[in-house]
Each structure stands twice: as C-alpha cells, then as structure tokens.
Amino acid sequence: MSIAHELLGPDFKIIDSDTHFTEPADLWTKRAPAKYKDRVPLVRPNADGLNKWYVDGLELMNAGAGSIIDKDGVKTKFWNIDMMNHITVDEAHAGSWDVSARLEVMDEQGVWAHIVYPNVAGFGAGRLLRLEDRDLAYAIVQIYNDAVAEWQAESNDRLLPQMLVPFWDMDHTLAEIQRCHDMGLRGMAMSGEPFNGGLPDLGNRHWDPMYELCSELDFPINIHIGSGDSGGSDQFRSMYGARTWASQDAHRAYVLMCVQLELTNSNFLSNLVTSDILVRYPKLKFVSVESGIGWIPYVLERTDYQLQEALPDDPALQRPSAQELFRQSVYATFWFEDSAPRHSIADVGFDNVMFETDFPHPTCLYPNPVDYALERLKEHDVEDIKKVMGGNAAKLYKVAV
To answer: Which CATH superfamily is domain 10-36+67-397 in?
Structure first.
C-alpha cells in the first residue's frame, strides 16, 4: 500500500497547485485572425539557428520545452544541460504539452488535478508589456485563454490553467476576467510587480475594480514567482543575478538567481499584508506560487513586531495583524522543502498551505512527488495533511472532490 493510501485513504484526490504548460509552437498562429498571423507569438530560428519565440518581431525567449523531464520520463541531470534553455521540445516528455500524456503522468503519480501556469508570455503576462500595440497584446491574451480553456475541457477538468490578464487596461481586464470565469476557468495569474511596466503598484486604488470583481466572483489572484518579468531571460539575469558573486560558475549562478527570484514573493507578501487591500476586501484570495513557505512566519512576525512595537496606539494600526490577514486571505505553496513541512507549517497555517510539484520545470518533484511530500508531513494530524495535499486547493479552485 502506498504512503498516500495509508495516510489519506484510496479515494482522496490529491491536487498539485503549481505546474506548467509548454505552449505548442502553433498555439497562437492557428487561432489568430489573419491580420495577426505574423505578429502573435511564433517560433522561428534566429541568426544562429536556435529556435526562439518571437512576438511582433521582438524576441521573447528560447523555444525550449520549459522541461527537465526527457521523452523517456527521466529527469535530466542538472549539470548536463544549459539551464537557460532546458531541453528541446523533441527531447522532452510529451506530458509537458499534451493532455493525454499529462494525465498519464498524473495517474502514475497519484495526482488528481493540476493547477497550470504559462511559460511564453511570462508567469503573469508581463512580457506582453513590451508591445506598443495594445490591441495585439489583448488578442494574444484572449487566444491563450481560449486555448487553455479547450485544454481544461479536454482533460475533464483535471487540468486547471490559470488565465492571463491584460492588466495594462482595466476595462479589458474586467471583461476578460468575467469572460474566463464564465468559460469555467478557475483563477488568474497576475503580475506581482506591475510597476515594472510603469503601472501602479497593487496597493493603489487603481486596482479596486479588479479586486471588487474577483471578490464578487470568488476568483483567486495567483502571484507566481517571476510574474513581474517584462523582459525575458536578459531581465532575469539582470534583476535576479545582480547579487550573485562573479566568481560563481554558470550552474551555481543559475541556482542563486532562482533563489533571489523566489524570494521576490516575500516583497509582495509583506506589502500585501501591511496594505489595506485585505482589510477592504476580506473575501479576496491571493496565492503566493512557487516560492515555498519556510520564510513566511519570519516575514509576518517581522512586520507585525516593528509596527506594533513602535506605534502600538496608532489608530491606523487598529486593524488585523499581518498574521491575521494572511490567515484570512492568502495561500502559499511548497514542494522541495524539508524543514518547513515538518516543523513550521502550523505557524504558516494548515488552512493556508498547498502542495505543488512544479512539473516539468527544473526543480520539480519527480518521479514520486506525493511520497516525497507525505514523508515530510506524516507526523501531522491526518485532517491537516488532507488540507495541504488537496483540500485547500479543491476549495480555492472549486475542484469537485
């Protein structure tokens, strides 16, 4: 009997709250109207013969598989590949982009549903800010959302892609959230740093119409690491590699950039829980995606301590604490961590944590992610483990269990 069956029972539905979708090269071109056929994201070789994604003549990113799982189902050794390119589509497991193959992987792992995030447009559509033609950018978002809605339907609602938002235009944002909600999509991937594109930060009242609609629709706002990326791999290196020692080799430098990238969600979270967003919109739900949970108690305690210690009687602070607002409105995901799931998850909150694998990205748990997670959770109460391994995600993303 597997650890999962032993702990959770044979009928419990495990939900993976962060996976990725390798967009097929023709995702946009085969759906675009004639006037946009040559301007939407497409794959072509550059001057060096390397396949790249282009949009409206601008290079977006390498056209690799975004995967580290090869076509034989083996996780590629980290030291054997170019981590900025990963492996090619021809080399990668079909579960990276094919519904049937993805469902086979899920069945093998004992996972019922995947929450799915994009690659090409950025984890929050930030790369589309580079486009001057906003009508084109809006069309790209809509085509993507239509495509993943088809994917969700094909999977019988076991694959739940999060919609992209044209967040640079509020009218379009509201219309697209409503449209995608009505199509059956379950949440949105939003940029955590819209100010990188010259827009207001998320605490600005500019975003109130979006918050009001998401509250009304019970539609979660997912802040995936790197969602503020508007420049592709060059920006990744400059933003997250700035504090990496020049003496580090390429592989260690890549790992250190990833650490910095993941910790950007601590900036988002500390701003969120000290702003008044969650006070004004108590039904609103945010998710910190692919940034772990071990750092969360420190950030919440740190912000509460100094605010309350310095100005305990300030009328502006007569409101819920950062810790209370987190418990009310925020979720976080974990995958590779060992210490936090064993020792500090209760401080984060069993009602606020969700299991993820990051399939098929470089740090993904593979091939036995469920056993890996349950080994680290097994000393906790079974009902709490069930919340983390699927219960919280089922409630948040409306998964039938």
So the answer is: Metal-dependent hydrolases (3.20.20.140)
